[in-house]
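Q: Structure for this?
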Amino acid sequence: MEQMNTDRACVLVFAKISASISHEIKNTLSIINENAGLLEDFAQMAEEDGGVAVERVYTVTKTIAKQVDRANIIMKNLNRFAHSADTSLAHGSLDDLLQLVVALTGRQADMKKLTTTLICPPGVALTTYLISLESLVYLSLLTLFKTAQENSEITIEAINEGTTISMSFTLHENADLSSSSYPDTEQKLLAEQLGASWKCEKNRLFLTFPAVIG
Amino acid sequence: MTKTESGKLKVLIADDEVEFASTIVSRLNLRNYTASMVNSGKQALEAIEIDPPDVLLLDLKMPDLDGLEVLATLKKTCPDLVVIILTGHGSLEAGEMGKELGAFDYVMKPVDLGQLIKKIEKAFQMAHENAPEK
């Protein structure tokens, strides 16, 4: 029953990420579509009077290439997240995991012009329910985003304490996260599966969890 | 409601995807429109106050004010402005909600420029016909 509930919490996060990413992919496709159309306009102009500056064509092709890169990165991140669920318990690197989650929340951060800074020691190995940890970090960040004012800064700091990892999420403004009902039902389920404890202070959330489960 | 002195329709695009908005601007300008862009909801309201366009193309998802909030404000401050919603949502729900809030119509992204132009012309024509004689 407990496993079913944590699975449900992960599906919820997957749905949130999919909604955000599909929106972003639609944006990149829209830009590519318009630029392909603009190339067609240039071709027509060239046919009619032979006059299109070559720089204008280069600008369009560069824009298309840039959007293809952007879409590729977005899909790569989604693919990495999806593969976190390949096995129940999996090995991973804390740094990679946090970078992935920060990238996956990029669009939500942009919507409020938020800057997220990550401080994490390199090479910290994890053996845990990776998708549950990613989901918990994702939902914790969204809690901060919801409270944050526009243009705020957020710092995620992870400290390796040997067998445990401590993580803090700090919102650099005069905020009160105690009214954010953190952790909510899903966050609590995920935290319990990960053996994590949590704390909520004025403008900070804390998570402590074992680096190795099982 | 009037066209610019040159007889061209003035179209303002409000979309936070700068490269999308700038390309639509280029393509509309090649087709005898006077198009310009802004990249947030607040900028849209400021630009409209200074120089109202004939037609506003309004994205729904933007930083600061989103499209529906802009639409709600415009309903009070500039009720005659013709608005066409641009939506990247997979479903039609958001566009229909925009229509309920007073938008003339909506267009799904990626945009079919031919379809968009037909909607711009139709929107302008209808607004012009319905405008009270001055």
